[in-house]
Please model this.
Amino acid sequence: MRAALAWLASFRLRILFRSAFLLLGLAILTMAVYVLQEEKQRNYDNYQSGFVKTKEQISAKLRHPTGQLALLNPPGRAFQTTPLHPVLLPFSAIDFDDQTKVRNAVEMAGCLVQYKHYGSLCVAIGNNPWAGGFIYAAGTFASTTLVPHRIGDELLDSAHRLRVVVTLRGQTYRWIAPFEPLTSAGNPQREGTRGRLTGYVDIGSRNYKGARPVKEFRGWVWQGSQCLMAEQAGGGDCERQSFFSLRLPVEVLRDALFQREKPVWPPPDLDLIQVRVEALAPGDGAALFDSNADGAIAPFSLNDLRPLLLPGETLRIRKTTAASDTDLVRLAGSEGTEGEVSSPLLTRLIRYLPVERYEAPIELEDEIATPLGNFTVYFKGDARSVNKRLSAVATRLSWFVGAMLLAIGLAWLIIEIGIIRRIAQLTRRSNQLSRTAKTTNGLADFELADLRGSDELGILANCLNDLLRRVKEDAEREQIRAEQEKDMWHAVGHEIMSPLQSLMVLHGKADDPSHRYINRMQQAVRILYGSASPSEAFQSSTLAIQTVDINAFLRNVANNAACVDIAEVFFTDGPDSILVRADEYSLEDVVTHVLRNADRYRPPGTPITLTLTTSETTASVAIHNIGKPIPPDLIGKIFEYGISDQAEAAANGNRGQGLFVAKTYMAKMGGTITVHNVDDGVSFVLGLQRVMGS
Model:
């Protein structure tokens, strides 16, 4: 686990850097999703309030006479605006003799069909069948001053006139109505011109000699006094707008009212009745106004409510008293996002964003009262349209979030390539160099030249490259020196071993004291022979562990100490033989090194005492000398190789390796060596393992 954590720690900075960019990207995405959710909630709340306003707006429109006219005349099968068909008015009849009343009725009902050049026409019937089976026609046309028809003139084409054609149920009714002014017309320049339109059956001829007016045909015309174009004012005869009102008697409709069966009103074939009205100037020229002319603009109908509906909303109108469940009209809002691109991914995401009360259906209804009965209006909203509109908007703005993410990605890529990649390469090469140094005890080939540069990281790589090159050069020089030292040890060992062999022959007897020291010298040479350095030689040496009588051993060392120029060494014999595990020659080297160290620091003439104490498992040898204590800063280092308190120790033959050899040999024999400052000097304690049963 610790190794895994250490491995992860080597990637900590890279993980931190990449995590920061990752979290930044996630933060932007989270912010975008949060904004989408907030917008969805806000749009849904606005949609609910807007849907209620739409319902109130449509209901108010339908309660107006214009809306009631549309309710009473729902759009049936598709047909063109012209030729005109009578519409059912929300009024029982029209007072066609009064210009003001007629104008107010047709304008308020909104039944006028607009034409070019100031033309308009409303063709309608009243909602009360007992007012008579009449068709009303009221409208406007533009002309110069109306030319009247003189009483007694048998030619009607010498005056302004209206020609009317009604076609229904296979029959056609034609009338021609010339303008006849009133005798008390007042001042035409200030009040305009007004008169009667006397209706005759149209025979298709100029001469109407002996023709009698149609009794039930009524018509009036009022021409204004103002010119339609300001530039024509004061320049002679100019065009003025004339308003006319007609009551057309249709026998087929009137006869249907007096049948025994209950009359059906309005007529079921109302949308099949065709009416054409033409305003003719004197002579046989083109008509001033023709209701069948192209470019006519139809009045308001229920289909005009469709633009008020948003996508997904539906409007149904049904007559309240109707026994069938057939809708009078059914409208659906057009798709407002046509032509707009929506991302399927964003649409799916917006659909799953939760908002309050989003799943509740939105259904409203209202009732509209008309003279022919009440109508129920059903409104149904679709909150899913919020998703569509929001998805289209989000798709248009998604490039902004994408641009931000792209900028973050580019910034990460630039830093990743320019910095992190170089850091990773430097780390990887450093780890490889570290592993190589541990396994081969040297520096392998390394190359940091490609990472050098003028920036901070390049300067660091340059410094490391120079430093490692210097270290490698020093290591190579040290290796050459070690090889040279090893060759020197080989030569020294070779030259020393031959005289030692001769001395061994001269002192070959075991009871000869010199025999023991010659063996120690040969062992020391064998240990050092072939090693690169003394410390490596001592650490790599192999000892022959055997059973040694520590009592006899110490007695022998004390007795022979004077032979190696160490006087005044005393040991008190123990009563019994005590066996320990040790290499006799190596143990003697250890004791000799400690004795030489004690001899060096004791005052002249003072003794060195050897004291043996035992326990069940160990035997401890205390070597004590009188003298100055070891300095505190040196007492923990005296067993290290090359440590000495004497300046130029190597020049005087003191290499600082005696205590290092002592500690090394004691460790190989399974023992210990420690040093303590006591009251009157220093005491070294050697700990050895006892042989069980001794």
